[in-house]
Inverse folding.
């Protein structure tokens, strides 16, 4: 949670000069989002989010992200809609950073999602995959299967500081996944980071999906596995089968998984767990111990990986097939 | 900038059960305020700020702060208005912390205030002092003259790490102020922290004053001195006389300073500079060098103190008398 770049009134006036939003009525930095600086913006024209893209985001990817949000919101998905300026663009610069304005979505993210929330997020992910089908943009997954060995190299030497034996466990899993990873599954646009803090609810109703800055083109069922891992485990590390059942049932109410996807699902879930274990491990080892922002615990995802290593089939996760 | 305490949906529902605000439509942590956790809250009834009071705020002071905001807003000042719950109280508890809801004020704080802004803040401070006149609450200034020696004791041994000779300079100034501090000046409710980030503007119009959590009972002209120091110096450390003139003129359009206040003003300005130099010095020496939140530079306020040590009379600051 952070605002990395301060926006002053002169920067803002110059940036908003290209937009038809009227006067600025309020601007407040938001303590959410770890990659970019986000401001709540109230103007005559309504409520918006102003995002300044910080160094961890590759500027060349921004047209993909903004084009995707525009495509998805144009196809009925509740997600932030980029606001175009008078020149027809959705991307500008403010305070030296690339920046965009998107519509503000109502809702609050759920710290303790219920079974019903899991059904709703499954359905929303299905809708995202369906709405994304006609999107022409392409972006390879920079954090997919091929990227994992290099991520591991960044952490390998010190992984055992986090838990003795961890480096060997990960090396073994990487070898298994390289050999077992499914090919030729249906691909398309995936969110790739649909964690609870990226899904908004008003009461029990899902009101929107946010933060498309890991979105890319990859296997749709891999996205399903990422989302299942993020929503259907309890905070004590146990898997909640009722949540799994609700999640799959929500997803399949929109898009049925193919037989090949169902058969490959446990491998996908292992890969999805390893991907977050690896990025968290790298962050964990690279943040000073006294820093005020603490990185997320990599062992949470190592635990999910171990769980899936014991899983016999997706049926045990709640996929009735 | 921070959110220290996470609020989950169960905590929020239980807390809001005592209020008539309708459904929660949005809740977002705000990256402003260094003492408390602040959330932007949108409910059926409108836009609000939910504040959780963290450990640096003494819970026994909260009725004073909330009562003051209610009094001031009831007397026409644009400041956050505490929302009373069904039991008639404005203070509750959420996630283990004392908490209150206040109305959301439009506006953006000015990173580079203009001369016109200085006139507006002077006038607003005059209005605050006038509106506060009938407030029955009393709170001694915990960071006033009597507190400075103890603050200095916390920093004395290491002050010269910040600048060689600083400890001796401060000791000398403390002795001077103890001897020269004016008595019997008009007292009342003061804001005590009316820096630019606590004053909101929509365009060039001042839209509100916020953050009353240093407010207390003290000399009104000391508050004027704090505010002058915060608004009328440029970022290079120079004093801007045009801003000083505009500031005093704005203040005196509401409340004329007495002759005694004017004669004592330079001493008050020295004390006001020393007070912020001391608290910043203590913070500076107590925050780990690698922390992601950097404390404010104490030398900015040491520089303002040195400037006032050279000032002959308040006339040089823009007080035409």
């Amino acid at each position: 949670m952070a605002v990395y770049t301060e926006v002053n009134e002169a920067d803002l006036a110059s940036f908003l000069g290209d937009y038809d939003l009227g006067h600025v009525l309020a601007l407040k930095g938001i303590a959410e989002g770890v990659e970019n600086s986000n401001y709540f913006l109230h103007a005559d024209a309504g409520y918006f989010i102003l995002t300044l893209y910080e160094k961890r985001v590759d500027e060349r990817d921004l047209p993909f992200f903004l084009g995707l949000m525009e495509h998805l919101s144009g196809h009925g998905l509740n997600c932030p809609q980029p606001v175009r300026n008078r020149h027809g663009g959705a991307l500008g610069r403010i305070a030296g950073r690339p920046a965009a304005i998107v519509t503000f979505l109502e809702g609050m993210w759920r710290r303790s999602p219920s079974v019903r929330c899991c059904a709703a997020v499954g359905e929303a992910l299905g809708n995202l995959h369906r709405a994304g089908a006609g999107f022409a943009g392409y972006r390879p997954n920079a954090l997919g299967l091929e990227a994992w060995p290099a991520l591991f190299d960044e952490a390998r030497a010190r992984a055992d500081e986090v838990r003795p034996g961890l480096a060997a466990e990960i090396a073994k899993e990487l070898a298994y996944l390289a050999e077992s990873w499914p090919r030729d599954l249906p691909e398309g646009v995936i969110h790739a980071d649909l964690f609870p803090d990226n899904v908004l609810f008003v009461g029990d109703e899902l009101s929107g999906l946010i933060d498309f800055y890991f979105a890319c083109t990859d296997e749709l069922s891999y996205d399903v596995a990422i989302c299942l891992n993020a929503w259907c485990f309890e905070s004590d590390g146990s898997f909640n089968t009722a949540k799994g059942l609700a999640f799959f049932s929500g997803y399949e109410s929109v898009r049925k998984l193919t037989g090949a996807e169902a058969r490959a699902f446990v491998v996908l879930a292992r890969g999805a767990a390893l991907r977050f274990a690896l990025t968290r491990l790298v962050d964990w080892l690279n943040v000073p111990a006294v820093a005020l922002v603490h990185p997320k615990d990599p062992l949470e995802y190592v635990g999910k990986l171990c769980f899936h290593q014991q899983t016999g089939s997706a049926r045990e996760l709640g996929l009735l097939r």
